[in-house]
Structures
1.
Amino acid sequence: MNDSTQMNLESAQAMVNPQSVKTPVNVLVVGVGGQGVIMVSKVLAALCQQQGFQVKQSEVHGMAKRGGSVFSHVRFGEQVYSPTIPMGQADVLVALEWAEGLRWLPYLKPETGIFIADTQQIVPPFACRDRKHGAVSGYAKESVAEISELISNCFAADAGFMAAELGNAKAANTLLLGMLSTALDFPADDWCEVISQFVPPKTVDINMQAFSQGRDWVERYDPAVLKGGKGIAVKPGGLVPIPHEVQFVLPVITEAWCKSCDICVKFCPERCLSLNENRIAELTKPELCTLCRICERLCPDFAISLNYKN
Ligand code: SF4
Ligand code: SF4
């Protein structure tokens, strides 16, 4: 276990002991629609309740279709009165999307707050300011390295990538729960038991793997690569670069996932998609595509993706 993890665990042990904590423990979970923010917060709330704490949870997701902002406050302790976390009072900020995490940083406790983030970047369609073909998109400019200079306990991993390597990118939220579990002193078995109740039965195994991977990732991290003793942990292979300007290539459609719902065809502002003779979505007028990513956001089956240009 590395020094920074140990530090987190020690401070967390003090945090979750109601005898030694006069104020509630605050965990803020943020991300965008479709990532499983609410699942993370529900798992945590249920676990805290199971451990005998009073819990208050609040969430905002009504306006968030896939791609919109979603956040949830979880507060637990001996006695909790308010469901919302005041600014600068979050003990842990869990971000399922990088830019969303940055937006909520003012809520983290300045000295002791723990930032756990997926470096996954989901660029909203409205960040595509220039609608010309091949135009670049704006995105949060701060890199992982820059953020680690500001936060004592910054754990940033490409959880989406790691979960995809396990076989299901949607398990990224469980992987982050594994990372979160190193900051809160609850038994790992109790985490697993609660997670199993909140994921589809067929995905329990992969979610258990994702949880372990997130937990192990923090615990076995080599301190030699920790950045300046700041507690930043990064994916093996180096810091994940957050490009200042993100450029995409044309939509790619995974035929096997397309269920012919026609949503992308109807909503594409440039009318460049259509269903082919097998009723599978196809990019028929690529020259008109503005890379706005609306089709990617709206496809209910994740069948369309626009990838970053290398
Ligand atoms: S929205 Fe997705 S599932 Fe529906 S037609 Fe388009 S690609 Fe297929
Ligand atoms: S195909 Fe997709 S990315 Fe291209 S213009 Fe239509 S909705 Fe936008």
2.
Amino acid sequence: MVLSIPTRLVRLAFAGALCAGPLMAAPVARAAQTVKVSAGAESPGGDVQLLEFAPVNVTINTGDTVTWSLDSTEFHDVIFTGGGQPPDFVQPGPDGVFINPLVAMPQGGTSYDGSGVAGSGLLNKGQTYSLTFSKAGTYTYYCAIHQGMVGTVQVQAPGQTVDTQDAIDARKAAQVGSEIDSKGVPTIMTNQGELPTEGSTIGVVAGAQNGPTDVQRFFPPRAVIHAGDSVTWVWKTQDTPHTVTFLSGGPVPDVVVPQPQPNGPPKLQLNPMVLAPSGDPTNWNGGSFLNSGFLQPMPGQPTPTFTVHFNNPGTYDYICVLHEGMAGTIQVLE
Ligand SMILES: [Cu+2]
């Protein structure tokens, strides 16, 4: 899906200046501006994802436009709800689990007055979404995919001081740098040493999270065991599901399978082959598709784990189907 919403520049009409008395200084007319904000950010290799808008808050004048750019391999959306809660990302039903169309597809027009819903639909890396703000107020927006990913646009009357792009860029750089460097890197180091990496049963961490900083890698990425040993993966995230999937030479399955509809856009189904567990991990010989399914810690429930018993020597590569570059290897010796 490609979004092509033209950035709209709105000329400001300073009607008030025309009828002001001679002693009143007319406000300085300024052309409407467009400011750029990031939806998500990542470390150079993409292993650390920042699940935040950067900067979180931005101040503009009425008539100005905000353009969000998706700056990460992790996808996000931008949705204004007119004061309501963000919509659920997925909707389970009798015929499968579907991405909520409110999140999947663009909503509303190119201008927003603070009422109703305006949304970008799913954004992929490099895509942008622009919205022009016609009315003063403070508007909260969300990423419906990542809980807690919230931002505001404060819209001021014309003539009031607002953010410059330089100020926005400086806040963004400080936020991204401090989150990824101060949280992402220590999260990696902590989790690398956390679980036993030798012995008959070893542990591997499937993703780790520290606040909005989400490390989308396996720790350690490579483990060596003997035939007959087991490996247990432990999920250490809050906001992001992962899979442990052995493709065994097969193709990487699509995460989303569009289901054409007689009227309107296709429904976006989460591929059951990725979503659900498959294969027998308690007695695995290699050479066949083996999948943990989507796993994600939930409040009040035990930490998800996935244990695979390796019967045969060999080198077994696996991936998280959801996250590019999230991959590992289990080498099984005699
Ligand atoms: Cu993942």
